[in-house]
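DOMAIN: structural biology
WANTED: fold as tokens
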Amino acid sequence: MQTTVRAPIAFAGVGLHSGRNARLTIRPAGAEHGIWFKRTDIRLGDTMVPAIWDAVDRSPLCTRIRNAAGVEVQTIEHVMAALAGCGVHNALVEIDGPEVPILDGSAAPFVRGILSRGLRSLNAPVRALEVLEPVTVQTDNGWARLSPGQGLTMDFHISFADAAIGTQEKALNLSNGTFVRELSDSRTFCRRADVDAMRAQGLALGGTYDNAVVVEGDEVLSPGGLRHADEAVRHKMLDALGDLALAGRPIIGHYEGYKAGHAMTNLLLHALFRNPAAFRLVEVAGDARARLPGVGIQPEEIPAVA
């Protein structure tokens, strides 16, 4: 059945790009509600922003959603990944600012909060989006593809000049809590040169060595080093799950990303929904539930570093 969180879960911190403090609360919601954000700092007008693919205002550095009134919330990808990876289908996410707190740069704090409160089943079946034929988007920088699969599986490939990252690739089946165990604690990352460039554009104002992995050449500048030798590609997969969650339903299919990012994954969803023959909605019941992320996960499975 569809799920929601059992009780409100509050988080507070600074936005990675805006540098502004924000308080975020994930609240229970009813069946078929989906995921919505509500700007509690705005008193008049439409303050509800849907977490859905066609509300995305594309950005290469984060995922930003905006409603018809121009109200927006940015850097939603980590909390969206946590909700999807924990199997939460419905929630109201209240936030008193324009950007989701970055916390430690990963999705693990959100995961820990969600699993510590627990989930509540709702009186409605889960309907998943099953991919029926391949859909691909490509740019000069890379490509992304969705194709048929037995559950949600993912392959990702990245390549950076800095030896501290270099070329990395990873393949995972995201059923049965794999996201929580393998990806949730992997942090956002960047090159030291990128930090200076972003700040010159008024971005990354809330970034620190405590909420991002910063590299320069073959050196990891963040204290404590990496949580995983391939933390960078794991984080890219985390981001991809959060961005795919904007399909509005769990996906049954295989995602491949080659140097893909937020904007490209959103382009992929646009391409998918433009082709009605490429997907169908299916009711997920019985043993098929185990193919979805988050089913059966327990709090003790969260990586200790989180």
Q: What stands out?
A: The longest strand covers residues 152-159. The two ends are 29 Å apart (CA to CA).
